[in-house]
UniProtKB/TrEMBL annotation:
Domain of life: Bacteria
Listed Gene3D superfamilies: P-loop containing nucleotide triphosphate hydrolases
Keyword Magnesium set for record: no
GO cellular component: plasma membrane
Species of provenance: Roseovarius azorensis
Residues of the ABC transporter domain: 8-249
Alphabetically ordered keywords of this record: ATP-binding, Nucleotide-binding, Transport
Pfam family, one: BCA_ABC_TP_C
Protein name in UniProt: Amino acid/amide ABC transporter ATP-binding protein 1, HAAT family
Keyword Transcription listed: no
MF annotations from Gene Ontology: ATP binding; ATP hydrolysis activity
Amino acid sequence: METAKAILETRGLSRSFSGFVAVNDVNFSVRERTIHALIGPNGAGKSTLFNLLTRFLPATAGQIYYDGTDITHASPASLARQGLVRSFQISSVFPHLSVLENVRIALQSRHGETMDFWLSDRRLRKYDEEVMSLLADIGLENYAQRIAIELPYGRKRALELATTLAMNPRVILLDEPMAGMGQEDIQRTSALIQKVAQGRTVLMVEHNLSVVADISDTITVLRRGEIIAEGTYDIVSADPEVRQAYIGGAHD
Ligand SMILES: Nc1ncnc2c1ncn2[C@@H]1O[C@H](COP(=O)(O)OP(=O)(O)OP(=O)(O)O)[C@@H](O)[C@H]1O
């Protein structure tokens, strides 16, 4: 595990907003096939770094590399095609379509087909087999015919993950996957993330530290736009600067 190569890397990455430096000269590296969490107190720059990595925000300075290729100026759509997929990105859920239809649309889009009403039944059925196997992976097979909007909250998030997986990602970026979830959904989603991480890389911003402790291989702690610690949960949680950042509270 320790020797896995870096799949995502930044060098001197910075982002300012009207002179305020939200991400400051960050050298960051995510090893392939690990679950990597980005944590830090409110306003630390987590969302900004996440948006830079997925190219939703342009960098003010520095470089981003994906699998050794400079992607500093790539578009989010081209990154998704190359396997760097932000959950809820291209694959947003259509609330009034069924679970099966939602995942089928994501698969069609990956195969370069738009929503073609004239697709033959045979071709649709071909997708449906793939859809059902994906839904089985994610524990949604019994929800296939349910309309997305009617799903319980945790299952809706699982559907979002299913549409992300339909893009066949190498790296999945999750923005607060546990947000708004109760304990039961948190446990199920944690297990799901560990499952989908097999053979893939997951980078997530997550506030729930017990989830982070449970499932992350590596944790990067940000504070005021800079990395202050990195390593396993045991290492970062014992770090005096990290403890101070959390005790110090929000915008310390
Ligand atoms: N579009 C923007 N314009 C101006 N300032 C911004 C913008 N986006 C972020 N910031 C500032 O950059 C800093 C970092 O914000 P960011 O949202 O990245 O932090 P965060 O660690 O994700 O916080 P939280 O945990 O509260 O979501 C904050 O001080 C924020 O006010």
